[in-house]
């Protein structure tokens, strides 16, 4: 995971496969960190080719916590298989999904 900041927007870039062990790290880094509360967060999954269900759970928890702190999170996905995972699990109804980081930045 790589973190970039642009004004009040945090951009976290992921790559490869996000497996169960990775989701535990995500949980520690994202959910337990007060640095993201009340912020605008973009999760860049353009270089992700697999995401496990436990990582999806971490994302939902992050969304809830950010919303309760007047923040929000959106996701950037370019891989059709990853997009289908979000559609099948109906998480495309929970998260705003964009095809590029600039599109997601424009949302905020």
Q: Outline of this structure?
A:
This protein has 108 residues and is α/β, with parallel strands linked by helices.
What characteristics describe this protein?
108 residues; alpha/beta; Transcription Regulator spoIIAA; 5-stranded mixed sheet; 4 helices; 5 strands
Largest sheet: 5 strands, mixed
Cα-atom radius of gyration: 12 Å
CATH homology superfamily = STAS domain
Total DSSP helices: 4
CATH architecture, by name, is 2-Layer Sandwich
How many domain units?
1
- Considering DSSP H and I runs of 4 or more, what fraction of the residues is helical? 40-55%
**CATH domain class:** Alpha Beta
Order of helices and strands: EEHEHEHEH
- Which structural class fits the helix and strand makeup? alpha/beta
Based on the structure, what is the oligomeric state of the protein chains?
single chain
What is the overall shape?
globular
Strand order of the largest sheet: 1-2-3-4-5
Q: Give the number of DSSP strands.
A: 5
Q: How confident is the prediction overall: mean pLDDT?
A: 88
- N→C terminal distance: 22 Å
Output the CATH topology: Transcription Regulator spoIIAA
Uncertain stretches: none
């Amino acid at each position: 995971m790589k973190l970039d900041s642009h004004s009040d927007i945090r951009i976290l870039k992921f790559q490869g496969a996000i497996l169960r062990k990775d989701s535990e790290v995500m949980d520690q880094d994202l959910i337990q960190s007060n640095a993201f509360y009340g912020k605008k967060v973009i999760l860049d999954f353009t270089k992700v080719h697999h995401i496990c269900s436990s990582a999806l759970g971490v994302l939902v928890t992050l969304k809830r916590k950010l919303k309760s702190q007047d923040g929000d999170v959106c996701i950037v996905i370019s891989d059709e298989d990853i997009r289908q995972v979000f559609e099948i699990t109906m998480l495309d109804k929970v998260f705003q999904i964009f095809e590029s980081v600039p599109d997601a930045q424009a949302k905020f």
